[in-house]
Amino acid sequence: MTAFNSFYQQIATNRLSHWLQTLPAQLHQWQSQHLHGEYKHWQKTLDALPNTQPSSIDLSGRVAAGSRDDINEGEFKRLENLLKKLKPWRKGPYHIHDLHIDTEWRSDFKWDRLKPYISDLKDRYVLDIGCGSGYHLWRMRGEGAKFVVGIDPTQLFLMQFKAIQHFIGDDQVNLLPLGVEQLPELKAFDTVFAMGVLYHRRSPIDFLYQLKSQLAKGGELVLETLIVDGDVNTVLVPGERYAKMRNVWFLPSSEAMCAWMERCGFKNVRMVNTDVTALDEQRKTEWIDTESLQDFLDPDDPSKTIEGYPAPKRGIFIANV
Ligand SMILES: Nc1ncnc2c1ncn2[C@@H]1O[C@H](C[S@+](CC[C@H]([NH3+])C(=O)[O-])CC(=O)[O-])[C@@H](O)[C@H]1O
Question: What is the ipTM of this complex?
């Protein structure tokens, strides 16, 4: 069973203590009623991970724990077999005792794109909404953040996070199995990241208000989302699928995105980067068994998705409250 007691202890003495009014009941309900059918198997995999002593931890240039020399051949093989049971590994990459978990996404590319523009994370309380397996949580901690919380409702990603944390340690970095809609208005974080989530929300304006209500006064929002070309009135609402994804709702132009943020009361709104996702950033590897970007694009015209929409282009937006 996943225990959140140490998280409760952490927040009891920090500025998130008011979260204790709702969080334990919510997670208790999650644990008793909403566990995934595979959860027990994943937990067994976690329990079987070797207890090693990584000789080094690197969270700044990459996410890495230990080297191959720290463990014997048998342990290395066991590590690889066990971690492969937690496939598909989407966000990463991770290096555990020099085992390269070559994830579908090079999430480090996104980090490199946004890092020059965000406020220094040193000593900040940081929330990452829709954090996947938590790759960026580790990079945030690597930049000196004091307390890092990620939320993501996909349970496999929680297990992947736990697997990585098994080797890195660090109880100031946590992932909770929650959706954004389950957060109370905490008004406590210095920086809130929301990357790759807005287009999955049916109500993007409500989503922006939810993000705003997590920020402390003067805090910073870092939002990344799919955008389309066009003016302030342009928004694409695709049909049933966009790049084979079913749950894609609103793709605004960059101007429309800025206008929505301003309408929701964010200040100093700016777009700092745009990027068309390239085939070296999202691709099939031996750590996923499913399709990847190449299969989602028109084989005769990679500037279009297989459905004929503009291929994925992403914008990074920063704003304050
Ligand atoms: N209601 C919800 N609340 C919070 N998260 C959700 C919700 N619904 C789905 N998610 C989660 O949002 C993440 C979106 S992926 C971005 C990962 C990372 N941020 C990245 O920038 O690489 C982008 C993509 O794969 O399209 C997934 O991990 C979902 O489980």
Answer: 0.99
